[in-house]
Amino acid sequence: MARAHTKQGMPHLFSGVIASALVAAALFAAGMVAVHREHTTILSTAPELFPLKNQGLAFQGAAAHAPNVLPLYGSSELTALRVPERANVFFRTAPTGFQVSPVGAGGMPPLIILQKVGALGSALRGKKLAISLSPNLTAHPAGRKAYEGNFSLMAASELVFGTALDFDLKRDIASRMLNCPITVEKSPLLEFAVRRLASGRWLDRVGFCALWPIGKVQNIVLEMQDHFAALAYIQHKIKPALPRHLEEIDWPKLIAKENVLRTTDEDKTKESSSLGEQKAPGSRDVAFRTDMNAGLGWTDLELLLRTLASVHARPLLLSMPFDGQFYDQTGVSRSARESYYQRLRALAQRYHFPLVEFKGHDEDPAFLYLHKSHLTVKGWIYYNRALDDFFHGRVPES
User: Do residues 72 and 387 lie in contact, with contact meaning Cβ atoms separated by under 8 Å?
Assistant: First the structure.
């Protein structure tokens, strides 16, 4: 009797295995189609900036594999729609042989950027990319709302359960991620893994290693969801790529044209409204240096540079300058602000990464809008020239 039941159960088990194998094969085939479409439509998607690109990794991965695309990671300066000269628009038709693929949103801090870089891992090996830094986000970490709004469960999970970074670097990153625990709490598996990583104890390390295979399964599921979402985006929202027009850009002429422009009415309003609030020169220098040196943003920035070095990427660091006139009026002198540029330069040199800090425009009223970290037309022209020089192997100028 038992043998008869066994014989009856075997066909059902065999049928279940076959069905599961067919489903897995179908999903794998669909995933391959999605990846193929991501790569073949890169000329259309690279210059665009949209939420799925920021939160997922499919489009970022396609840009990383494209030889004529330069990824650019940053914050709200990438979303300033009123500046048509921003890099992704300026290089849309690849006038000098490459496009710029922006990834960023308001308040995106280095800690979020490093999660994306660590998640892409080997895809960035030997890849040129650019990182746009804001002095405010560099010296001070973004608020919790900005971090939460830019957090990507997929990027965090790929970083934690991936193999691109060593355990010590993951431990240091996990410790910083736990400063905003609400983000990892969305996934009990990720939260458990991050807490095991952050503790650094050998028993927790064993627990993390035991959990690692389950984390890899989670990553596979998230990757498939990301590729299917990317395929849907391509099918319904993709626009044809603009034709390429290779041309020689006269950078000195462009810059000279922008240098003769006067400050905007917005800048004039700022200057006139600030005169009554002007403080004694250097009166806030001590407080500025104290806050800047104590800022946890430096920890996050160094973790980002360590991550870039670990995945063997080839980054260019671009730092927007301070709005010097605004800081002068609020009691922070140029010499105090110089300490930021010096510290940033020393950090870049430690990892042998090229840096353009644009400190020569610290008191240039036409470089930034108001006292925010948003580039004007002139600011973007300088950014674009640095990106063009970097991509073509020339030394970027500030």
Answer: yes
How many angstroms separate the CA atoms of 320 and 368, rounded? 8
Give CA torsion, residues 295, 297, 303, 304, to 10 deg. Answer: -160
Tell me the CATH number for domain 35-148+221-398.
3.40.50.1110
Specify the 3-state DSSP secondary structure of 209.
helix
Instruction: Report pLDDT digits (tens) over 312-349.
Output: 999 999 999 998 888 888 899 999 999 999 999 999 99
Which residues of the chain are under the pLDDT cut of 50? 2, 4-6, 262-275
Distances (CA, A) of 84 to 73, 92, 144, 253, 376: 18, 11, 31, 18, 10
What is the spatial distance between Cα 345 and Cα 362, in angstroms, rounded to a whole number? 15
pLDDT tens column, 135-161: 887 776 667 888 999 999 999 999 999
Q: Residue ranges per domain, the chain?
A: 35-148+221-398
Q: Tell me the HSE value of 308 on the side-chain side, using a 13 A CA sphere.
A: 26
Q: Which residues contact 379 (CB under 8 A, 6 or more apart)?
A: 320, 358, 361, 367, 368
Q: What is the DSSP string of 76-104?
A: GGGG-TT-TTSHHHHTTT-TTS-EEEEEE
Nearest-5° angle of CA 226, CA 71, CA 391? 155
Give which of 332, 334, 353 is closest to 344, Cα–Cα: 353
Residue 244 to residue 93: CA distance in whole angstroms: 5
Backbone angles phi, psi at 181, to 5 degrees: -65, -20
